[in-house]
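INPUT
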Amino acid sequence: MPTYLRSRSFVALALLPAMLIFIVFAIVPIIWSAYYGFFDWSGLGSLKFIGLDNYEMMLQDPIFWRALKNNLILVASAIIGQVPIALLLALLLLKNSMFNRVIRSAVFMPMVLSTVVVGLIWGYIYQPQIGLLNTVLEMLGLDSWIRAWLSDPKVNMYAVSIPINWANIGPYLVIFIAALQNISSEVNDAAKIDGAVGFRKLFYVTLPNIWDTVIVTIILCISGSLKAFDHVIVMTGGGPAQSTELLATYMYNNSFTVYRYGYGSAVSTMIILISALLIGLNYIITKRRG
Amino acid sequence: MKKRLTLVITLIALISLLTAACSSGNQTNESHEGGSNEKVKLTIWHNFAGDDLRAKAVRGLIDEYKKANPNVELDAQAIPVDGYRQRLSTVAAGNEMPDVFFVYAGSQSQEFYDAGLLQPITPLAEEYPEWKGNFMDGAFDRFEFEEGQIYSAPIGLSATSFLYYNKDLFEKHGVKVPTTWTELMAAVKTFNDNGITPIALGNKAPWVAQSTILGSLADRVTGTDWFLKAVKGEASFTDPVFVDALGKFKELVDNKAFQEGANSIDNTQAEQYFIQGNAAMMVSGAWTLTNLAASATPEQVAPIEVTTMPAIEGGAGEAGTISGGAGGGFALSKKTEGAAKDAALDLIYSISGPDGQKAIAESNSMVMYKMDLASSNVSPLYLKAFNVAMEAGITPVYDAYLSAEAGESINNGLQEIMMGGKPEDVAKKLQDAQARSTQK
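OUTPUT
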């Protein structure tokens, strides 16, 4: 390989187009949005500078806190649900047999489906009168468990989080399989000779070897859950009465349904701050353990 | 090097193509040269560009006018609904309105009037008084910017609150079709006792309960005048009368008038639930006619009847009304004068006049013009609804008058009541939201 290909300037040059696109379409809008967050603005017409009033209003709005709580439920369900299940499936489906490949595609399938389709499918599963779930419960004689899954505020947030987890396991499975295949066979052989099998092997050999991957997946889970939007919009629209409102749907409704564009911008800036905070927290915790 | 040159040339070609495409969209209309000579040039803009029956009917009317008036050189532009509002605002800003154009009732036509872009079509009303008299009450309310002057005639009605009911279920269980609140509650009880959902409701998109039920329910309790005052801030939504109105809605909820989980299914699913005979009633707008016509079998539709929401004893509002709004109509540009103006008025009359209204009504869509459709080839269910609407007074739809934020607040508030919330709290939130937006 010629040396100039390895030089820093070439790397910089090669990255430049992608960086430019990223800056123009991601970084600049974030800065603009943060800027609009200081204004009372309907999206049209004149901007009125109001300093931090939007943030003050946000912190006083109980719906904002409910949205944040719902997002944290999603984050928790993603970390408790998606990561361990994906890891378990990856361990089970590691070998490249025909059967395993079929199952892997099946697990990945919902990821390929449009989120609208996923939302509609689960909307029908949860449908209160003719839905699959309630019908099955009725057949099993569990009539007392039957409820309106998506409109009962006691359960609907959990009901909503299941399809989101279901749809998102696929990529983590792929990431984990790749990481597991990267563990060199010497390590595995050595573990076998030393008699490490089962859980012992998992905790002392496998997990430490893929720990970096686990951290990355947790970060992906956090950021993915904080910007969750599409499944919820399709299944409940953030309702009923904003009981499944997430930060993103809260931001969307404020900006585009009631035309408080400045306020919506402030909310989106807040989402970035919360996201950064959680990821930072995760970094500190996992680093200590690693 | 050569490659780069080709690239540059391609880019230039592309850009020039784009600019050409843009500029061709901005043709100005030179249409006022008529007057002395015979030939008159007219432009008309409308948004009936789609493939639905109504759009075809309106385009058909324009074509007929073209044929009947060979001396008029008519340039008709059908602009898709999505972009129509904006296209019109753009030419309005440049004071280059087409001679005749479709305007929505409400804020859009008000803005054009305020900007001095419209002239009244009152001459038509003077020429054809019988035509004007045939409109439903209140049809011209939103086009009468000055006393005695009308600026457009509505060619549509968006009715949001018919009470659809399944005749067979009522007969089978010996229930009287409710004409009063007491009768409605009795019907709710009987149907519940027999394991039938009294009223199908799909309130996942939260405007449904507000637009179909609350509008006419609250109007019966508060009266229309109170609501219009409350919108302007001269009365408060925390007034006991409105809390009572919300209380009526809560009464429906508490008596299990709606099926379980109504907040998580959408309007179309509720329609299906109703048409399959699982529910005895459904309160919904004229759109349900279209949906049922498209998806239900004739046997399913046969037992469905249409009426208005029952009266509420002791309420301040009138009974027998439906909530709804005047649809848009065709308006006349201020700049159109002389022979062109006469031709333009003729054109408006040929779309909005008796024949035009009939053609539109026969495309199975509601109009505000009274007529006998019995012999026309329209769907039976539509005919029933049309006759109900002809007899009914029209009362305001809440979210057409409230600010966006207040509309959202009452939409969510009704869901909250369905989940056990208190009418007082919902009323307070609505008042706060409306006050916030009227202050600005």
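end of record. The domain at 159-324+394-439 of chain B is CATH 3.40.190.10 (D-Maltodextrin-Binding Protein; domain 2).
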